[in-house]
Amino acid sequence: MKSFSRPFSSFLVLSALIAICFFSCEPMPATSVEQPIEILLEGQSIALGEKIENPFSIRAGAKNSPTQASHYYLRFRTDDPLALREFLDLYPEAESFPLDREIVEGGYFYDQPDIDEATQLPWFFIIIKAADLQTYLNDLRFQVEILDELAIPDTPLSTESSRTTGKPYGYVTLKNTVTGSLEPLPLVKVQVNHYLTIASAFTSEQGFFSIGSNFNDWWKPLPTLKIIFDNAQCSIHRDNLLQYFTPVEYIVGGKTVAQMQGATFQIPLDSATPSPVGSAASTLKAVYQYNSYASANGISKPPKLKVLLYGLTNRDPGACWMARSVMTPYFTTIAGTIGAIAGSQAGPVGALLGALAGFGSGALSASTLPDILIPYNPWYQHGGLTRHYDALVFHELSHASHMTVIGNVAWMREYLDKIIGITTGSYTQSDLLIESWAYFSGNNAMMAKYPQHPGMPQ
Asked: Which of 140, 180, 211, 353 could form a cystine bridge with 168, CB 3.0-4.6 A?
């Protein structure tokens, strides 16, 4: 299988170009902003404006451009999700929306008319160096289309005084439906991308982020800022094909560098229209708070977790499989057993078990399975949403801590007993042991966070 790599020489050339083009620097604030701009992240599908003529396009006859392309603007897609994940790990600047149109309204997905997001992976768009083109064309796993030939100069274009250069910084917040307040969202990834420059940073405990690279408004479209729900503790995914393999993200567009500086990006939790973005933010923060609670109380913290948000519209709770950590060595053996159990179960339990067995016995293997499943359905979207989400995540993370202590084999044995208990409708000793610890530890974590609102969702 071919893999993509970036020659070190290409990195040096790119670094030199960035250093020449983005030479301006603005001082950073000490701690806060007096009157921050509030940007509400409430969109769903990304809305794009009219196509923008690329100032570097050879085909469009860019001013004083040479006939030799220095870069290419491409779109590509594949039906192999593992190949796509490999590619995006190497090239995070690739986007699932066209790069030659301004983003009018942000959102967490772009609706491509010729793609069914439930069953197909979308087209991705990227600007690459001319020297790397053949690497793309030679990889038979991908369909590749050249959309434009670009001649990007080694010196910046002349600029207008109204256009700015600077380093984006600001805050990411989440509305707590228990307290009614806006709370900082720690350890969420913020990434900014514009032409050949991409940079990212994680928010602090106070929700503050500061991007270390300069960006500018000289060349349209404007820079793209993304909130990505992925960090060293967990990666949040959702139940469609693309974001099963890539983390949930929210794309913010149509903002100048000046508007990004000091802005507060607010993630709402809307009881009328449940959003995977609000659920992803709630889950990511709950994981952070549970790990802080575990560290303070001598409880083993789980490894980095893959958390899958799913949209069943009933009261089915979450689940802690610890599939990648525990099941990978054993899953081929037990997939048939779980599949048989799934066939005897109606409703969401059977659906989840069936999906688990299908993935485990297929080519994707347990390495791509989620460790924890959390619903983002309407039942949780009411007045106590934040508390219910926290309680559910704390409970499932307590299971993960339990697994970390007892080890893979013991957890596998106990969990198989638990599955048998589900099918028979009776509690086994293993089920009682697993659940009693999760309720004890999870409720303690809840009481530490909400002294006036303890307890699990009923």
From this structure: 211
Integer Cα distance of 264 and 144 in angstroms:
38
Residue 231 and residue 302 in contact, taking contact as beta carbons nearer than 8 Å: no
Separation between Cα atoms, residue 354 and residue 343, nearest integer Å? 7
Kindly provide the b/e burial profile for residues 158-195, where b requires at least 16 CB atoms within 10 angstroms of the residue's own CB: eeeeeebbbbbbbbbbbbbbbeeebebbbbbbbbbbbb
Give dist(CA 30, CA 23) in Å, integer.
22
Among 182, 183, 177, residue whose Cα is nearest residue 382: 177
Q: What angle do CA 376, 341, 343 make, to 5 degrees?
A: 80
∠ CA(266), CA(268), CA(272), 5° rounding? Answer: 160
Q: Are 39 and 265 in contact (CB under 8 A)?
A: yes
Measured CA to CA in angstroms, residue 289 lies from 24, 130, 172, 186, 411 at distances of 38, 46, 16, 9, 24
What element of type H or E holds 347?
helix 347-361
Residue 309: helix, strand or coil by DSSP? Answer: strand
Given a contact cutoff of 8 angstroms between Cβ atoms, the answer to whether 419 and 319 are in contact is: no
* Beta strand segments in 10-70, E: 38-40, 47-51
- Tens of pLDDT, residue by residue over 38-95, are 888 878 889 998 888 777 888 766 555 556 888 999 999 998 888 888 888 888 889 9
- Model's pTM, two decimal places? 0.80
Strand-pairing partners, residue 38, are: 264
At 71, list the tokens.
């870069």
Give me 91's structure tokens.
């090239």
For 124-176, the pLDDT digits (tens) are 999 988 888 888 888 888 999 999 998 887 655 444 444 567 899 999 998 77
pLDDT: which is higher, 286 or 318: 286
Beta bridge partners of 305: 234
Q: Mean pLDDT across the stretch 343-347?
A: 51
Residues 6+ apart with CB under 8 A from 440: 398
Whether the CB-CB separation of 303 and 325 falls below 8 Å is answered with yes
